[in-house]
TrEMBL record:
Source organism, top-level taxon: Bacteria
NCBIfam families in the cross-refs: conserved hypothetical phage tail region protein
PANTHER family: CONSERVED HYPOTHETICAL PHAGE TAIL PROTEIN (PTHR38009:SF1)
Protein's organism: Streptomyces vastus
Listed name of the protein: Phage tail protein
Pfam families according to UniProt: Phage_T4_gp19
Length: 164
């Protein structure tokens, strides 16, 4: 083993600063984006005469739905997309969730493809508070990618932070 003394790894990125783009449109200041998840389903295969284990073979990757949440405003782009889908006007869209650094420069991003809104949730009304109303949109999609360029920029950003 080598000498690890003085070796410092890049600090992890904070997740409070991000942007969401759908079909080239920055669709709002989101307060939360969740569901960046994909799982590979495993299939069991028993081989005749082999009793010590069961083969585990990878199957299809299945992404989770994305949930985008933001403060309610006069911009109705997300509602219109959901409403059109509910009325049978289907328009699948591609998009990106980008993690930004403190200067609001993208340092890493995930692309999703062929998304379709499957659930809209509106604000909760309460006359006893002055809280901001939120809406959320849940998107089913056909998979996530994490482009190599974004990975390289994130690595370069982390190394620059360590040096500076």
């Amino acid at each position: 083993m080598g000498n690890w003394t003085g070796l410092r790894f890049p600090d992890p990125f904070s997740t409070f600063n991000f942007a969401v783009e759908i079909e080239g449109l920055l669709v709002g200041g989101f307060t939360e984006a969740s569901g960046l998840e994909s799982r590979i389903e495993m299939e069991s295969y028993r081989e005749g005469g082999v009793n010590g284990f069961v083969h585990q073979l990878p199957g299809a990757a299945t992404p989770s739905n994305l949930v985008l949440r933001h403060g309610l405003s006069a911009v109705s782009e997300l509602w219109n997309w959901y409403d059109n889908t509910a009325r049978g006007v289907i328009q699948r869209k591609n998009g990106t969730i980008a993690l930004l650094d403190r200067r609001r420069i993208p340092v890493m991003w995930w692309n999703f493809r062929n998304a379709l809104p499957v659930r809209w949730t509106g604000p909760t009304f309460n006359a006893g508070t002055d809280e901001v109303g939120f809406e959320s949109l849940e998107l089913a999609h056909e998979g996530l990618t994490k482009p190599l360029l974004g990975q390289a920029l994130a690595l370069g950003h982390g190394i620059a932070d360590m040096a500076g």
